[in-house]
Amino acid sequence: MNGADVIIVGSGMGGATMAASLAGSGRRVLILERGDYLRPSAHDRDDRSIFVDGHYRPDEEWLDGEGRPFNPGNYYYVGGNSKFYGAVLIRYRREDFSPRKHIGGTTPGWPISYDELEPFYCRAEHLYSVRGNLGDDPTEPPHSSPYPFGPVPDEPAIADLRARLTSLGLHPSRLPLGVELEQWLSRARTPWDAFPDTNGGKLDAETAGLKAALQHANVTLRTQARVRRLISGEGNCIAGVELTSGETLSAPIVVLAAGAVQTAALLLASANEANPNGLANSSDQVGRNFMNHNCSAILALHPFRRNDSVYQKTLALNDFYLTGGPNGEPLGNAQMLGKISGEILQASSPLPRSIANWVARHSLDIYAMSEDLPNPESRVTLEHGRIRLDWRRSNWDAHLALVSRLKSVLRKAGYPIVLSRPFDRRTPSHQCGTARMGCDGASSVVDANCRSHDHSNLYITDASVLPTSAAVNPALTIAALSIRAAEHIERNTKAA
């Protein structure tokens, strides 16, 4: 496409949703994706290939805060990380948009309220065909329209867990999901959580967002088009996008949606004489406030009850989301993991194969997730062109308290053996915050419409703009913010 009106860098949840939202406006949209399409192969439902051999992990290394190299768990394909996500499309709670006191500190709140974002949540739920159920989760914020589809059904072991938790006075709820269950299982009877989507069984950024966008002739996707830097021009505008091939492209509007780490790295790598600290960075906030959910896997077992679930990921528990700490502080969310196998368990533990297989056959596998708080010293920087990620984990006591509460609950629910293991730093658990949203250009990177304070034609619509991480999966919130930003672009710029 020559003469694009909008260039979008990245085809993940933020970029794909932006393209879908602008497609009907007549604007010529060019999406640049550094990776290629994921295609069916012998690896895509092979748990050893995925979890042991790391077949899909990128061939790159970042540095940690101590300068030690590590292989990050981020993915570069059409559809971005959403190709591997657990397809959880849940709204942040109303309380997440206001300042909140946690065990580890107080969050700053957002420049917009839940009510301002709510209509865009509805539009995102329809674009991604979310399956859910209202009324069983007391923390669920108001919806102005119901979920488009009913919930994905529980398998027998999960229905039993739901009944046991309910009998304890808790409120297990249906997990809102973007999954075409029969389509997913038609390729192989496996979980979808952390498995790549190669048959359209998940409603991810490619199968929903890009599919809707590319139905329009004015939208084009270029794969294997890696952006090296943005070029600033006169009048505080982004003048162009330079690819690693040496090609330079330009458009009146540039949308950066490369992910929380890569977006920050691109802005920092785009430094020039007029912007020595990088583009969009007069606040010195680009790369700062990196957040990554505090997460643990919890395995609940009864030695005489097998769990024959295939996918299992249909239940959430938010009874400790708004309160539960020693002084009423929020603790976080619990939801089912995709069903683990002995291979998956062996990849992250020293268990012998026979024991790992026995545990996997009997366990209910739960994902405990707590909020990581923004900290300007938790940050992404560049060291001789190489990404350095110095994650300063916060609010860990709240996470330990959540894990403790969940273990107690699960034992009361009839599971005498309950094990837990925290996720390590190689596992990206909803990275966000490196180009935070705010009203004040001196302390934030983008405004409430996701437009750069410094560059009037630059928008950022990925997880980097999130002021707080909350304690639920961010995909739907990213999509809702992207739809809202697209509406702002439509109102404030002219189509060709």
From TrEMBL:
<feature type="domain" description="Glucose-methanol-choline oxidoreductase N-terminal">
    <location>
        <begin position="198"/>
        <end position="294"/>
    </location>
</feature>
<keyword id="KW-0274">FAD</keyword>
<dbReference type="InterPro" id="IPR036188">
    <property type="entry name" value="FAD/NAD-bd_sf"/>
</dbReference>
<dbReference type="InterPro" id="IPR051473">
    <property type="entry name" value="P2Ox-like"/>
</dbReference>
<keyword id="KW-0285">Flavoprotein</keyword>
<dbReference type="InterPro" id="IPR007867">
    <property type="entry name" value="GMC_OxRtase_C"/>
</dbReference>
<feature type="domain" description="Glucose-methanol-choline oxidoreductase C-terminal">
    <location>
        <begin position="426"/>
        <end position="481"/>
    </location>
</feature>
<comment type="similarity">
    <text>Belongs to the GMC oxidoreductase family.</text>
</comment>
<dbReference type="Pfam" id="PF05199">
    <property type="entry name" value="GMC_oxred_C"/>
</dbReference>
<protein>
    <submittedName>
        <fullName>GMC family oxidoreductase</fullName>
    </submittedName>
</protein>
<dbReference type="Pfam" id="PF13450">
    <property type="entry name" value="NAD_binding_8"/>
</dbReference>
<dbReference type="InterPro" id="IPR000172">
    <property type="entry name" value="GMC_OxRdtase_N"/>
</dbReference>
<keyword id="KW-0560">Oxidoreductase</keyword>
<dbReference type="Pfam" id="PF00732">
    <property type="entry name" value="GMC_oxred_N"/>
</dbReference>
